[in-house]
Amino acid sequence: MKFVYAFLIISIVIIVHELGHFIIAKASGVKVVEFSVGMGPRLVKFKIKGTLYSIKLFLFGGSCQMLGEDLYESTDAVAKVKEDNPTDKSQENIVPDESDGVSFNSVSVWKRIAIVLAGATVNIVFGILVYFILVSTVGIQFVDPAKDTIANRIYYGAQNTGKFITSIFDSIKMLFTGGLQTDQMVGIVGISEVVVKTNGIINYLNLLAVISVSLGVTNLLPIPALDGGKILILIIEIIRRKPMKMETEAKIQMLGFSILIALSLFVTYNDILRIGAGS
Questions:
Q1: pLDDT digits over 234-270, tens only?
Q2: Residue 25 burial by CB count (10 A; 0-12/13-18/19+): exposed, middle or buried?
């Protein structure tokens, strides 16, 4: 049952991340083709103001699909899908147009940076907020009851939250300075093991905060295939005053994605060895 809690925690973190992209994309006038919860075939779907909202079979993670990404690179791609499938009514709810939003690539570079940055930012803010509420409400014990005031709880809650944020950044820094080895990193398997050993709603919420902030900070690293890598490419566009060729960007993203997959396999392998050694 606790493995279900692990997937639930990771799913909440991912959905919060995608929600950040969704909110800023909508605010920037970018067409959100679909916002989904879960993976696999759609179980429930409905369309509001041009965006398809769906709940999928496997309730793990989520996604925010914007016009200008993957298949939906342009209105030409949309027209091509319609041309190739003139009688396919199943495409009606997922083939987008620009009647209620524009392509991601057609908005200013600053808006694109804001959209990409939003996912990690919301993760960090969400995690900090969860941690602050936990510390302020149940994480502080006052010896003197007279000092147990709302103001003192907010003060000490903020102080402890500051230490929490510093510890997260220190862990990331140690990875690059050699203080933390790659075989000490944990993936989904390792996180699941931690959750299995966790008891009580307070500890689960604390773990949720740690994972959310960690994902947000890590995702801002300037590595291709991460949001930080995309932001770096957009910064290069600002410096060059012209966008990078799509073919070049695709190759860079593919290289980064391949590195991340290799790292994920390595971390998962170490997780399994660590759990096996522990048992």
A1: 998 899 888 888 788 778 878 877 877 777 776 666 6
A2: buried
